[in-house]
Amino acid sequence: MSDFVINGFENFEVYGSRKRKVVSDSKMAAIKIIAAIFAVLLVCELCVYFFVVPCLDKVEISWSGLSSYTKESMNGVIMPCANKKFMNFSTAEAKSLVLSVPGVESVQVTKRFPNKVYINVTERKPVAMTFVSSNGRTVPVEIDKNGVLFNATSGLVNNDSSLPLVSGIPVENIPEGMRIPQKYRALMEQIDKIRNLSQNYFAAISEIHVLPKEYGNYELVLYPIHSRTRILTGRQLSEESLQYMLIALSAVNKIEKKAEVEEIDLRYGSVTYRTKSDILTRQTGDYIE
User: Fold this and answer.
1) Contact present, 87 and 100 (Cβ < 8 Å)
2) Are 191 and 127 in contact (CB under 8 A)?
3) What is the dihedral of CA 137, 140, 142, 146, to 10 degrees?
């Protein structure tokens, strides 16, 4: 009797174990099916992200480095390629269009999936300004250290006292983006070095006039802000020459007839000055220096 009960109990345990195993296999199969479905959906999403969206969506452009130009104006510059799909967007074309803006020195254009375009602009930094004729009007333009002319859009013309006015350079009607003649570019480099000094020397000068000489040479005439006396100097503009100019002006201010002093000549390593009457005499041909 006891043997029968034991045998029946053992058979019951085997049957229950088989039932649990069948249920466990069914759950595992369901999990595999669900995982496969998610994998297929993930692959489909990646295909849409990397292939469909770039082919159908227009590019989204992000600008950086702009200060003198607005994003709206620059979007207008690259309009020929701004409305293209990501796959058709040409970084070389966009770069060429942005570089056509005279005030842009360099640009980097980067594409990123699925439809992003990042454009980083380096603008030209003005070191001086001058005036040119445009459509019958005289307008200010800025000059960078490499002698490139570009629009005065930054507002520095009126607000930056370290930005000197340079006149006398033959730049009338020269289009934007063009360079001033080669022989005057060294002057722009000199001005750039002086502007980077801690002392703002150009705050004391209202104008730097280029005076052409024979054989393609030139000299400079400086016009101080708080004086009617003009300064004649050579073509080399430096901190030392400007300090020399300030000392000469200080000495002239101590002269009793300072109101008559029209010129201070620093060209030959010494300081000489001419009064108004001297200049008038020289102009009539009677003045001998």
Assistant:
1) no
2) yes
3) 50
Q: Are 205 and 248 in contact, with CB atoms under 8 Å apart?
A: no
Within 10 Å of residue 59's Cβ, how many Cβ atoms?
A: 21
In the chain, which ranges are continuous DSSP H helix? 2-47, 53-56, 71-77, 79-82, 91-99, 156-159, 185-195, 239-252, 276-283
The conformational region for residue 147 under phi > 0 = left, psi -120 to 50 = alpha, else beta, is left
Contact 264, 248 (CB under 8 A): yes
User: What is the rounded distance in angstroms from the CA atom of residue 278 to the CA atom of residue 276?
Assistant: 5
**Higher-confidence residue: 174 or 263?**
263
Res 153: pLDDT: 60
Q: What pTM does this model have?
A: 0.68
Percent helix, percent strand, percent coil in the chain, to nearest 5? 45, 25, 30
In the numeric block, the tokens 């039932």 are attached to 19
Task: Report CA dihedral (71, 72, 77, 82) to the nearest 10 degrees.
Answer: 90
Distance CA 130, CA 123 (A): 19
How far is residue 195's CA from residue 239's CA, in Å, rounded to a whole number?
A: 10
Task: Tell me how far apart the terminal alpha carbons of the chain are, to the nearest angstrom.
Answer: 149
- List Cβ<8 Å contacts ≥24 apart for 10-13: none
Taken as a whole, the chain contains a residue count of: 289
Q: How far apart are CA 215 and CA 183, in angstroms?
A: 12
DSSP track, 30-42: HHHHHHHHHHHHH
Q: For the chain, what percent of residues have pLDDT higher than 70?
A: 75
